[in-house]
Design a protein that fits this description.
The protein has about 130 residues and is of the alpha+beta class. It is about 20% helix and about 20% strand. Bound molecules: FE2/S2 (inorganic) cluster (FES). FE2/S2 (inorganic) cluster binds next to loops.
Length: about 130
């Protein structure tokens, strides 16, 4: 699975919005650091977080077990699995929030904003 990723900090810095359809196009034109915007590949047996780490990126995490939301990402395109045993509430999942530590791609392409743990709606979930 090919993943295009974007750091939520850049979204904040530039005043962009997560639900902006043009978000990744804007990111592509913003000349961001390779850590903040780029692409990586997820192998079939890897979670999104593992793939990011193997690719040399330091995405936030803590428990690695679906219990804290530090690893949360926002899914702008594609689908990432979410095991039943996790902390993400249904309403946030419906809005596109997922956990990268136990999320496995279900589509060939994904667009994700990582580092969304600083979003206010995730505050209560961060341990
Ligand atoms: Fe805690 Fe993913 S690192 S839920």
């Amino acid at each position: 699975t090919r993943v295009e990723f974007l750091d939520y900090e850049a979204v904040v810095d530039y005043g962009w919005s997560l639900d902006d359809d043009e978000l990744f196009r804007k990111a592509g034109q913003a000349d961001l650091d390779p850590d903040a915007h780029g692409r990586l590949l997820v192998q079939p047996d890897e979670s999104l977080l593992e793939a990011a780490e193997r690719s040399g990126f330091a995405w936030p995490f803590s428990c690695r077990g679906g219990a804290c939301a530090n690893c949360a990402v926002y899914l702008a395109a594609g689908e990432l699995s979410q095991p039943t045993d996790h902390i993400m509430p249904d309403d946030l999942a419906e809005r596109g929030f997922r956990l990268s530590c136990n999320g496995y791609p279900l589509t060939d392409e994904l667009s994700v904003v990582f580092n969304v743990k600083q979003r206010p709606e995730l505050d209560d979930l961060i341990l």
